[in-house]
C-alpha cells in the first residue's frame, strides 16, 4: 500500500477499474461520473463494498462498447467514490474525487469486471524560479482567455490564483480547457510538474490564438453592421425630414427613372448587370461629386444605345435594281456585284458575309452607291470619314478614367442611327494613319471581321456590343496604303472613271437638275446645250469622276441666278460660243493628236488614285560624258525603268543606226512635265525608251499614239495594271491609237464598247515593235546620223 502525502486515504495495490469514454479525471478534482456498461457497474459495486477506491482509465477509441486490455491507456487516475446513486433504468451515477496518478502494473481479472494491480505515481514538484514563472504565465494566459470571451466562471479564476502547487495548477486549468482526449492524456502522463505546466501552456496559447482571431472577426462584423445600421437610420431620418418639409427626394426619383429606362432598354444579361451595378454606385454617391457626373454620362450612353432596336427590312431585288439605276448611270459591274450581294442576303437572311470595299477615283459614286444600298434595304445610312485618323481611340473610344472620355466613332454612329442594323459606310479607309497613339486599322480588324464583331468591345463602354447585323461598306481611292490583314477581310469592287458619254448622261439626268434646283432656278431660266456640255467635259475638266463637272455646272447656275434676280426673264442658253463668258478661257486642250509630231517627246499613260492620266515624256541629249539626268519627281521604280530603257537603246544602237558610243559622248536628260506631282511605277518604261530613241534617231514620235508597258533590258514588254483607267484617260485626251502589252489584251473586256470603237489598239511583245509603231520616218530637215546630231548639238552649245 502507498500512502499519499497529507492524505489519510490509502490506495490499495489491487483495485477495480472502470474504463472511461470521452473524459479524463484529474487528481484533486471532484467530478460526476455516469456509469452504464455492465462491467463498469460491476466494478463500481465492488469498489463500494471494499475501500471506495477505483481506477479510472480512459479507453483509446471512444466508439468501442466493450474495450479490451490493449484498448486502454497505461496511466490513469485513482479516485475515491464519494456518493453513488442508482437510476431505475439500471445505470448508476457516482460523484468521484481524483486522488493520484496511477500506472497499471498488471490486469488480474477481466470478467465480470476489470481488476488491476497499480503503482501510485507521486507528484514531482521541484518548485524553482522557472516553475514559478511558468505558473504565473499560465494564470495570466487563463485570465486572458476569459477576457476574450471563453466561458470561465469567476470563482474558477479566483481558484487558479490561490493554487500554489504547480502540478495541481496545471491539472486544474487543463480540466477547464476544451482539449481533445489524447491531449488531456498527455497531461495525465506528464508526472513532472514542470513538463505538465509547459504542455498546458502550449495548449492554452493555441486556444488564445483561436480566441483572438474569433474576436477580430466578431469585431469586424460588428463594425460593418454598425456602419450599415447607421447609414440606414440616417437615410430614414433624411427621408423623414424631407417629408416634413414637403420636399421630394429628387435623387431617389432620378434613380427610379434610370432604373425604369434600363429595364426598357432590354440590354443583354451581362450588360444589364453591369449597368445596375453602376446605378447602385451612383445612388450611394453625393450628386456633387465629380465621379457622379462621369457615371451618369456612362449610364446615359448605355441606356441610349439601340440594343434591340432594328430597322424593319424590306428587300426586293427588282426594286433594289430600280433604285440603283435611278440613282446612278453606268457602273454596270458595280451594280451587278451589289445585286449579287443583296441576293445572298435575301436567301440567308443575314449579313455575315464579305465586307464590300469600293475602290476607285474620287467622284465616281462610291458613297452614293452605299446610300442606295441602304434605301433598297430599308435601313438607316450612317457614314464616318476615316481620312486623317491617327488615334486608335477614335475607333475604340477612351477609357472612362480620362477626362472628357467618349465612345469611339463606331459606337457614336450606331447611337446616332438609333438602330443596331444600319448600313455603315467607312469612308476613305486608305487614308488612315498610325502614330504613337496606336494604329486605327488594327482596331478596324475586329469591326470588319464577321467572326468577331458580334461582341465588339469599346474601351469606354467596357461591355460587348453586337455589330453582326450591321452592313459595313468601305471606300478607298487606292489599295496600296490599306494593310494586308485589313484588305484580306474585304471584297474589292473596283470603280473606273466615266466615259465622255456617261458624263453627258450623268450631267443631263442628275447634275443639271440637281444644281438648277439647289440654286432656286427652273427649267424656263436655263438651258445647257449638249455641245456646250461636251465642251465643259473636254476643255474645263479632266477627271475620272464628275465632281469637277458638277462644280462647273454650279458656277454657271450661280451666274444665271444673279441675272434672274437682276430682272432677266428670258431663258438663257449656254452654247459652245458663249460658254467662255461663264467659265472663262479653257483650261485643258482636247485632241493631242492634232498637235505637231515632235522629236524626243512620247505620250504615255499613267494611273493615279484620281484615275487614269496622259503624260508626256521628254528626252534630250547634251554634250557631256554619259550622265543620265532624271527630273519631274520620279519615284525609284520609274528611275530604274529609265536606266533599263537606256540599256536597251545601247543594245539596239546598230539596228537604230546611231553611234554606239552615244552614252559616253552625250548627257541624257529625261523629263516628265508636271514636276510638282510625284510619279512612280514601271509602266512608263516603253514610253521613256520611245522618247529616247526618237531623240537619238531624230525620228518624230506620233502624237496620236499613246503607250504603256514595262520594259526589260532585252526589250521585252511586260504587262501592267489599270488598263481601263488608262484607256479612258487616253480617250478623254483625244488619243486615237494605243500601244498595250500583248498580255493586257484580255483587260479590254472591261472597257466600254463605245470607247473601244473609237480607238485603235496595238498589242506588242517587244520594244522593237513599239518603235516601229510609234516613230515616224526620219525628218528630212533633221541630221542624217548620230554623228551629225552630235555636231549640231555642239554648234548649238557654242552659240
From TrEMBL:
PANTHER family: ATP DEPENDENT LON PROTEASE FAMILY MEMBER (PTHR10046). It comes from Candidatus Aquicultor secundus. Induction: By heat shock. Its EC number is 3.4.21.53. It comes from the Bacteria. Residues 15-208 form the Lon N-terminal domain. It is an enzyme of class 3 (hydrolase). It is found in: Cytoplasm. GO terms for molecular function: ATP binding; ATP hydrolysis activity; ATP-dependent peptidase activity; sequence-specific DNA binding; serine-type endopeptidase activity. It catalyses: Hydrolysis of proteins in presence of ATP. ATP-dependent serine protease that mediates the selective degradation of mutant and abnormal proteins as well as certain short-lived regulatory proteins. Required for cellular homeostasis and for survival from DNA damage and developmental changes induced by stress. Degrades polypeptides processively to yield small peptide fragments that are 5 to 10 amino acids long. Binds to DNA in a double-stranded, site-specific manner. The active site is at 683, 726. ATP binds at residues 360-367. Belongs to the peptidase S16 family. Homohexamer. Organized in a ring with a central cavity. Its main location: cytoplasm. GO terms for cellular component: cytoplasm. HAMAP family: lon_bact. This is Lon protease. Residues 780-799 are annotated as: Disordered.
Amino acid at each position: 500500500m502507498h500512502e499519499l502525502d497529507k492524505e489519510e486515504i490509502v490506495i490499495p495495490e489491487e483495485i477495480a477499474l472502470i474504463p472511461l469514454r470521452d473524459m479524463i479525471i484529474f487528481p484533486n478534482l471532484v467530478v460526476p461520473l455516469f456509469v452504464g456498461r455492465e462491467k463498469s457497474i460491476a466494478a463500481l459495486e465492488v469498489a463500494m463494498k471494499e475501500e471506495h477506491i477505483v481506477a479510472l482509465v480512459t479507453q483509446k477509441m471512444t466508439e468501442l462498447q466493450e474495450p479490451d486490455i490493449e484498448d486502454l491507456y497505461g496511466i490513469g487516475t485513482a479516485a475515491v467514490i464519494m456518493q453513488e446513486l442508482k437510476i431505475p433504468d439500471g445505470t448508476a451515477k457516482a460523484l468521484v474525487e481524483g486522488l493520484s496518478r496511477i500506472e497499471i502494473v498488471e490486469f488480474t481479472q477481466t470478467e465480470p469486471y476489470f481488476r488491476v494491480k497499480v503503482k501510485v505515481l507521486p507528484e514531482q514538484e521541484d518548485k524553482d524560479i522557472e516553475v514559478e514563472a511558468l505558473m504565473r504565465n499560465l494564470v495570466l494566459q487563463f485570465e486572458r482567455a476569459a477576457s476574450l470571451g471563453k466561458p470561465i466562471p469567476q470563482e474558477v479564476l479566483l481558484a487558479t490564483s490561490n493554487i500554489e502547487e504547480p502540478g495541481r495548477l496545471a491539472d486544474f486549468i487543463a480540466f477547464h480547457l476544451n482539449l481533445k482526449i489524447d491531449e488531456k492524456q498527455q497531461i495525465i502522463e506528464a508526472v513532472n510538474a514542470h513538463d505538465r505546466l509547459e504542455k498546458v501552456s502550449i495548449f492554452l496559447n493555441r486556444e488564445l490564438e483561436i480566441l483572438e482571431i474569433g474576436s477580430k472577426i466578431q469585431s469586424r462584423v460588428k463594425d460593418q453592421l454598425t456602419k450599415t445600421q447607421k447609414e440606414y437610420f440616417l437615410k430614414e431620418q433624411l427621408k423623414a425630414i424631407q417629408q416634413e418639409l414637403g420636399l421630394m427626394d429628387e435623387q431617389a426619383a432620378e434613380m427610379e427613372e434610370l432604373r425604369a429606362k434600363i429595364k426598357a432598354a432590354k440590354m443583354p444579361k451581362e450588360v444589364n448587370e453591369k449597368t445596375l451595378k453602376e446605378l447602385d454606385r451612383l445612388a450611394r454617391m453625393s450628386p456633387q461629386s465629380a465621379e457622379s457626373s462621369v457615371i451618369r454620362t456612362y449610364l446615359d450612353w448605355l441606356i441610349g444605345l439601340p440594343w434591340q432596336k432594328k430597322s424593319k427590312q424590306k428587300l426586293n431585288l427588282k426594286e433594289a435594281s430600280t433604285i440603283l439605276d435611278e440613282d446612278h448611270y453606268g457602273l454596270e459591274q458595280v451594280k451587278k456585284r451589289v445585286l449579287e450581294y443583296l441576293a445572298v442576303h435575301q436567301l440567308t437572311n443575314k449579313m455575315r458575309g464579305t465586307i464590300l470595299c469600293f475602290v476607285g477615283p474620287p467622284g465616281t459614286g462610291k458613297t452614293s452607291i452605299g446610300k442606295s444600298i441602304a434605301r433598297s434595304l430599308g435601313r438607316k445610312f450612317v457614314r464616318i470619314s476615316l481620312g486623317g485618323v491617327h488615334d486608335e481611340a477614335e475607333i475604340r473610344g477612351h477609357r472612362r478614367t480620362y477626362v472628357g472620355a467618349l465612345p469611339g466613332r463606331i459606337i457614336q454612329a450606331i447611337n446616332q442611327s438609333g438602330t443596331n442594323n444600319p448600313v455603315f459606310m467607312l469612308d476613305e479607309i486608305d487614308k488612315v494613319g498610325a502614330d504613337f497613339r496606336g494604329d486605327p486599322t488594327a482596331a478596324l480588324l475586329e469591326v470588319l471581321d464577321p467572326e468577331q464583331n458580334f461582341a465588339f468591345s469599346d474601351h469606354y463602354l467596357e461591355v460587348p456590343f453586337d455589330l453582326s447585323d450591321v452592313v459595313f461598306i468601305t471606300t478607298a481611292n487606292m489599295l496600296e496604303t490599306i494593310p494586308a490583314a485589313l484588305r484580306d477581310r474585304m471584297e474589292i469592287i473596283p470603280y473606273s472613271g466615266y466615259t465622255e458619254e456617261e458624263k453627258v448622261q450623268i450631267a443631263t439626268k442628275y447634275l443639271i437638275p440637281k444644281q438648277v434646283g439647289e440654286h432656286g432656278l427652273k427649267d424656263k431660266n436655263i438651258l445647257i446645250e449638249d455641245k456646250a456640255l461636251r465642251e465643259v467635259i473636254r476643255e474645263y475638266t479632266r477627271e475620272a469622276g464628275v465632281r469637277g463637272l458638277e462644280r462647273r455646272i454650279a458656277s454657271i447656275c450661280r451666274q444665271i441666278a444673279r441675272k434672274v434676280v437682276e430682272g432677266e426673264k428670258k431663258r438663257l442658253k449656254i452654247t459652245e460660243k458663249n460658254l467662255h463668258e461663264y467659265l472663262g478661257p479653257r483650261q485643258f486642250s482636247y485632241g493631242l493628236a492634232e498637235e505637231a509630231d515632235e522629236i524626243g517627246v512620247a505620250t504615255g499613260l499613267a494611273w493615279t488614285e484620281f484615275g487614269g492620266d496622259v503624260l508626256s515624256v521628254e528626252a534630250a541629249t547634251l554634250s557631256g560624258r554619259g550622265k543620265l539626268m532624271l527630273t519631274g519627281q520620279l519615284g525609284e521604280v520609274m528611275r530604274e525603268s529609265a536606266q533599263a530603257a537606256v540599256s536597251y537603246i545601247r543594245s539596239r544602237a546598230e539596228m537604230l543606226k546611231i553611234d554606239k558610243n552615244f552614252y559616253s559622248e552625250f548627257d541624257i536628260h529625261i523629263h516628265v512635265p508636271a514636276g510638282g506631282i510625284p510619279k512612280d511605277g514601271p509602266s512608263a518604261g516603253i514610253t521613256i525608251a520611245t522618247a529616247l530613241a526618237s531623240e537619238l534617231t531624230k525620228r518624230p514620235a506620233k502624237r496620236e499614239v499613246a503607250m504603256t508597258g514595262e520594259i526589260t533590258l532585252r526589250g521585252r514588254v511586260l504587262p501592267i495594271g489599270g488598263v481601263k483607267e488608262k484607256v479612258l484617260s487616253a480617250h478623254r485626251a483625244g488619243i486615237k491609237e494605243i500601244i498595250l502589252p500583248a498580255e493586257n489584251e484580255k483587260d479590254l473586256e472591261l472597257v466600254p464598247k463605245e470607247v473601244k470603237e473609237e480607238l485603235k489598239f496595238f498589242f506588242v511583245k517587244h520594244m522593237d515593235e513599239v518603235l516601229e509603231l510609234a516613230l515616224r520616218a526620219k525628218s528630212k530637215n533633221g541630221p542624217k546620223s548620230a554623228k551629225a546630231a552630235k555636231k549640231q548639238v555642239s554648234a548649238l552649245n557654242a552659240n
